[in-house]
Write a structure and sequence with these properties.
The complex is a heterodimer. Chain A contains nine helices and nine strands. By secondary structure, chain A is α+β, with helices and mostly antiparallel strands. Chain A folds into two domains: about 70 residues, no CATH class; about 220 residues, no CATH class. Chain A has a four-stranded antiparallel sheet with strand order 5-6-7-8, with no helix packed on it. In chain A, helix 3 crosses helix 5, helix 4 crosses helix 9 and helix 6 runs antiparallel to helix 8. The termini of chain A are far apart. By secondary structure, chain B is an all-alpha fold. Chain B has one domain: F1F0 ATP synthase subunit C (F1FO ATP Synthase). Chain B is built from two helices and no strands. The longest helix of chain B has 27 residues. The chains are: A alpha+beta, B mainly alpha. At the A-B interface, helix 8 and helix 9 of A face helix 2 of B.
Chain lengths: ~375, ~60
């Protein structure tokens, strides 16, 4: 398993290299601001825009950008493939063809169709149109959204983390066949796997059924946890802060506990025993709404809001450097933002684990409610 | 803005109650710490989901 070890070492080096380049870039930014040439991230609205841009998904993998001495805007990162299902069928090209433009001014022509990117959404221009025109509310009037299957930044993160997990866990599983004790990175994973099985799956689902669901719970736990941690690196992923991702995970849990529900579970939901007949339909409505809407919705919103809020807080604290520069001075503002963002990032590491734990725990709890035996009726 | 403040006040009172009562429980029965902690985290997570839902809808 030399390959896996090499991959991990390579990743470590890449992350360290990223840290150094990012810190170098922010330093040159500051120099720019000192000269007061209308530095970029200076005003509150620009900071706000920058943070919102980070929270959203994007079509490029952009690490950072800067303005060079000639006043040109340079972007460091790499383009990702854009895959569209347009009115003429499948269209693919690299996102670099948009040249980081996000307000629809750069038009990409492919297969005789014209495409423009407006606020991270790709629009297809109507036939005959050469430029996007906007109405007063800044909606495009001569372009329509296309079905977008692009490998965006979040999709890219999902794929990378998925492959890494496959590598780590298949290696861990293979090690148990030859020897009793895992080696290398497996030693970090083993106690966590046991923790999820013994502290989350077993007590919540019960001795009898927990084996069936442990696989799902483990997958969800590590998936959320590793993606949350990846979101804290300067790579700028915000995968678990995308409603689509958390919604999908919540739907998985919903489907699992709905199809594995026992007769007793449905009985208690639809025709609650032991209460007056007149109240039973009312209770059924409440129980159904709870099981089919409120439970998955709370799973979805909790993860999304926690991670997004965490990202916003970290970035706002970093932005103190720019917003409080006048009142505290460059050194004071930078020091304050450094201290605050350092400690909030530590808290975010805790939150990353906690949210993965809570999602898994509540999933286990809901599954446990669905499969438990109602033989000892009330 | 006022709504956000109210939500946070409500959630704060709720979390305080949960944490305080859990600690009283642990002080009375230290051997049940694990169970109390699990229940505490579940209730806190439910409360948090509610608070975030309200903040999310309010925005």
């Amino acid at each position: 398993m030399k390959v896996a070890q090499k991959t991990i070492k390579f990743l470590l080096i890449a992350v360290i290299a990223l840290f150094t380049t990012v810190s170098f870039a922010s330093e040159s930014d500051k120099k720019h601001d000192d000269q007061n040439d209308g530095g970029r991230v200076n005003t509150k609205s620009e900071v706000e825009e920058y943070i919102l841009h980070h929270i959203k998904d994007s079509h490029d993998f952009s690490l950072f950008s800067y303005t060079n001495d000639e006043g040109e805007r340079k972007h460091v990162g790499f383009p990702l493939p854009v895959i569209l299902w347009s009115s003429e069928g499948l269209v693919t090209f690299m996102s670099s063809e948009f040249h980081h433009n996000d307000d629809g001014h750069v038009i990409v022509e492919k297969n005789g169709l014209k495409f423009a990117k407006i606020h991270s959404k790709i629009f297809e221009l109507n036939t005959g149109a050469t430029a996007v025109s906007f109405d007063e509310t800044h909606h495009a009037t001569n372009a329509n959204k296309t079905l977008d299957f692009s490998i965006t930044k979040s999709a890219f993160g999902l794929i990378v983390i998925g492959l890494l997990m496959l590598l780590w866990f298949s290696k861990l599983a293979r090690q148990y066949k030859t020897k009793k004790v895992p080696t290398g990175f497996g030693r970090v994973l083993e106690p966590l796997v046991l923790y999820v099985r013994d502290e989350i799956a077993k007590p919540n689902i019960g001795e009898k059924h927990y084996r069936r669901f442990t696989g799902y719970l483990l997958t969800v736990f590590f998936f959320i946890w590793i993606l949350n941690l990846a979101g804290l690196t300067p790579l700028g992923f915000n995968v678990t802060g995308q409603l689509a991702v958390t919604g999908c995970l919540a739907i998985f849990t919903l489907v699992i506990y709905t199809i594995s529900g026992t007769k007793g579970y449905w009985m208690h939901m639809l025709w609650m025993p032991g209460v007056p007949v007149l109240i039973r339909p009312i209770l059924a409505v409440i129980e159904l709404a709870g099981a089919l809407i409120i439970k998955p919705f709370s799973l979805l919103v909790r993860l999304f809001a926690n991670i997004s809020a965490g990202h916003i807080v970290v970035m706002s604290l970093i932005a103190i450097m720019f917003t409080l520069k006048e009142s505290l001075g460059v050194v004071g503002a930078t020091g304050l933002s450094l201290v605050l963002s350092f400690f909030i990032t530590l808290i975010e590491v805790l939150v990353a684990f906690l949210q993965a734990y809570i999602f898994t725990m509540l999933s286990a709890l809901f599954i446990g409610m669905a499969v438990e035996d109602h033989a000892e009726a009330h | 803005m006022i709504g956000a403040g109210l939500i946070v006040i409500g959630a704060g009172i709720g979390l305080g109650q949960i944490g305080g009562k859990a600690m009283e429980g642990i002080a009375r029965q230290p051997e049940a710490t694990g169970k109390i902690q699990t229940a505490m985290i579940i209730i806190a997570a439910l409360l948090e989901g509610l608070a975030f839902g309200a903040l999310f809808l309010g925005k």
